[in-house]
Write a structure and sequence with these properties.
By secondary structure, the chain is mainly beta. Helices cover 9% and strands 33% of the residues. It has one domain. A five-stranded antiparallel β-sheet has the order 10-11-14-13-12. A four-stranded antiparallel β-sheet has the order 6-9-8-7.
């Protein structure tokens, strides 16, 4: 379970980073090369006995259009028929890819959510569906990770290893600064046993590691940025480059990652991606299966709107828009709501990639189990625990 200190400051859409909780220790390597696909006699796709892409149902789309990887559009009526003679398009008739690139995408997204000492910007399912790691420049480094150590090298924070938090039998928490590295080991609270490590030199610039007691009487090691006067537990922008929470007159937080700016959008303060400006908000399908969105930003300079492009085709999906002005990456004949992301008691994640269920066995890939967390932001996360 993730240890939640305050409101999440990583979020979806154009938001990039935030201060929050941590996971239990992680020092595993996920073997993406072991992800092989074979077809069962019932038509389902079984991936190495632990990852399954079932055929799904016969869900139909209610109007709208579906761009097919740049090869035109496919009109879908209420019965789920396509334009070629009215033949039905069954959800699952187009399986997910079996390429090495897709295997790495699945692995990187599971690791990004599971190894993050924060609440990641999106769920595993959405990360895969929207090729999220390649959409924003600040996250591109994560596209090739194969371990939590790789995640730390990219983000300068992660869940801890058993070397950093070894004494699991201890009844006392251990929060400490090793040079300018902040480490949090929570042993005495089984329900909040998520540990974290932060490189304050990389994350906070001139900030320094400090151990302190927050307003909820939790002892934490964090990156100190200087004095503050805020009396709430909310996130604030120290300037356009730093985000923090205030505790006891001291600001604890991080510098925003490169290519992002601290700001407030619809009441939510966070680090927001800097993207190409656009003038008319909306959603469209462009190129080869690309979902393009012109969305509001936290700043009116240089533009009140910025564009973000999600590569649906990277997961073998198509771009679809509807009459209501929405859009999504989806498998032909499916709707994203046809499956739900979850964690089973045996450590198996059920993911939903463009409307197709995809199971990921955390235990088979070196973790001990999986878990579910719903922070105050309202986003529910399912992830693997080491």
């Amino acid at each position: 379970m993730k240890r939640h200190h305050a409101t999440r400051w990583r979020a979806s859409a154009v938001v990039v980073l935030g201060i929050a909780g941590a996971l239990a220790g992680c020092n595993i390597v996920v073997d993406a090369g072991a992800y092989h696909v074979v077809y069962d006699t019932d038509g389902s796709v079984v991936v190495d006995g632990s990852v399954t892409v079932p055929e799904g149902g016969t869900s139909a789309m209610d109007g709208g259009s579906q761009g097919m990887d740049g090869a035109g559009s496919q009109g879908m009526d209420g019965a789920g028929s396509n334009a070629e003679g009215g033949r039905p398009v069954a959800c699952g008739s187009t399986p997910l890819p079996t390429t090495q690139a897709f295997k790495q995408l699945v692995s990187a997204c599971v690791l990004s959510v599971s190894c993050d000492a924060q609440f990641f910007a999106t769920t595993v399912s959405d990360c895969i569906t929207n090729d999220y790691l390649q959409t924003f420049g600040s996250l591109a480094c994560l596209g090739n990770i194969t371990s939590c150590a790789d995640f730390y090298n990219c983000e300068n924070l992660s869940v801890t290893t058993t070397v950093q938090c070894p004494d699991t039998s201890s009844s006392d928490d251990d929060t400490y600064c090793n040079g300018n590295i902040a480490t949090n080991c929570y042993y005495s609270e089984p329900n909040m046993e998520l540990n974290s490590v932060y490189n304050c030199t990389a994350l906070a610039g001139s900030g320094t590691c400090e151990v302190y007691t927050d307003d909820n009487d939790n002892t934490q090691a964090a990156c100190e940025l200087g004095p503050c006067t805020d009396t709430d537990d909310n996130y604030h922008c120290l300037d356009t480059s730093h985000i923090y929470t205030c505790s006891g007159g001291t600001a604890y937080g991080f510098a925003c990652p490169s290519a992002s700016t601290c700001g407030t959008l619809m009441g939510s303060t966070s680090c927001y991606y800097n993207a190409t400006a656009c003038s008319v908000p909306g959603v469209s399908c462009t190129g080869s299966g690309v979902l393009s969105e012109c969305v509001a930003t936290a700043s009116s300079s240089p533009s009140a709107y910025q564009v973000q492009n999600f590569n649906c085709a990277a997961s073998g999906l198509s771009c679809e828009t509807d009459d209501a002005g929405g859009g999504q990456c989806v498998s032909p004949g499916c709707e994203q709501s046809t499956c739900t992301e979850s964690c089973s008691g045996s450590g198996v994640l059920t993911l939903c990639v463009g409307g197709l269920p995809l199971t990921y066995d955390c235990v088979a890939n070196g973790f001990t189990s999986c878990d579910t967390m719903s922070p105050s932001s309202g986003q529910t996360y399912n992830y693997c625990i080491y």
